[in-house]
Amino acid sequence: MDIPAVRSEAAREGERAIVRDPLPTQGLLDFRVIELFFFAYREFTADADSILERYGFGRAHHRVLHFVNRDPGLTIAELLEILQITKQSLSRVLRQLIDEDFICQLPGDEDRRQRRLYPTKKGRALAVELSEAQARRIDASLAKTTDEDMRPIASFLKAMASDRASARDWFERKDITWKDPE
């Protein structure tokens, strides 16, 4: 039988000691990059959040709308794999999007038990509105960026997002690469 270790009062007191020095900017962890991601993500989502609020939706609704619009006919299983969420988490969001006519769920052609998701015109319009708000912010940020500058930015973001097989599969399926316009 394992007996939980009892920590001494002195050890607990040491954990509660006040620290007055800020974390260093550089060193073992580069907090500047972490903070850039924090503030960039906050602003990137803010425009879409204000649109979503009008519908009583949140970011989960946005993610579902985005991927269903990017790949109409996506199965629920594929969406779960992409979003890395539970069926229970998806169920509430998807039910609301279906009930309010943003998404339509149809049986699969070969396997009638399979459920495929399609955007409605209303769902497409909202997905485009949300994407336009975010694209404006991206475009403004990249306005002074050349195509040459964009390649390492895209490469960096892809590397950050590619830990999971579902993301790598998505990038391969959708050919997400930075190419010069032809």
From TrEMBL:
GO terms for molecular function: DNA binding; DNA-binding transcription factor activity. Residues 30-162 form the HTH marR-type domain. The keyword DNA-binding applies. Keywords: DNA-binding, Transcription, Transcription regulation. GO terms for biological process: response to stress. Signal peptide: none annotated. PANTHER family: TRANSCRIPTIONAL REGULATOR, MARR FAMILY, TRANSCRIPTIONAL REGULATORY PROTEIN. This is MarR family transcriptional regulator.
